[in-house]
Design brief:
183 residues, 6 helices, alpha/beta, Hypothetical Protein Ychn, Chain: A, 40% helix
Length: 183
């Protein structure tokens, strides 16, 4: 009787571990929390390939509809990143970057400066930018846009790299094989 109880206990423990693992994969460990990946489409033929390395530059030139909205390009980048992760593309095969310029430039501001420029509105972009950066997404802002908007570099979020010019950054990334999305 003891061998049966022992095998049964091991089987229950193994089943519990499998269920916990499946639950963690389904609910939790996406790189950017609170952003859904693309929905599954039964029978879809073109899906992310875990053997490929994805080089993607998101061009964030537009402002959101209101200062209280997260910039839609940041949401798109996060959704794409989470879709790749959900499909099993390893982190070292996800080479993503965002170039922020023109109307998108205010998103890079630290909260105090954003509030000062937007009637007390908190910067809604900070959390998603921090999550993207933590997941390895490179964030760049156009230096020409920073000058034009009279932004002091000390008021730029630390996750964002200040570049000379968006055009230079875009051309450099395209030359390195990145696909440019948006703009």
């Amino acid at each position: 009787m003891k061998p049966f109880i022992r095998r049964f206990s091991l089987a229950v423990a193994a089943a519990t571990a499998c269920i916990a693992l499946l639950g963690a994969q389904a609910t939790g460990s996406l790189p950017v929390p609170n952003v859904d990946p693309a929905k599954d489409v039964p029978g879809a033929k073109n899906v992310p390939d875990p053997t490929l390395t994805y080089h993607v530059l998101f061009d964030m030139a537009a402002a959101p509809a209101t200062p209280s909205d997260v910039n839609p390009t940041l949401l798109t980048a996060a959704r794409y990143l989470n879709t790749l992760a959900k499909a099993g593309v390893p982190a070292d095969h996800r080479k993503l970057a965002v170039i922020i310029h023109q109307g998108g430039t205010p998103a890079v501001l630290k909260n105090a400066e954003y509030k000062a420029r937007n009637g007390g509105q908190e910067n809604p972009n900070i959390a998603i930018m921090q999550a993207l950066a933590k997941a390895g997404v490179e964030l760049h802002v156009c230096g020409q846009g920073v000058l034009g908007a009279k932004i002091d570099p000390k008021d730029i979020q630390p996750e964002v790299q200040l570049d000379l010019w968006a055009l230079t950054t875009i051309v450099d990334y395209v030359q390195r094989g990145y696909v440019r999305i948006g703009g």
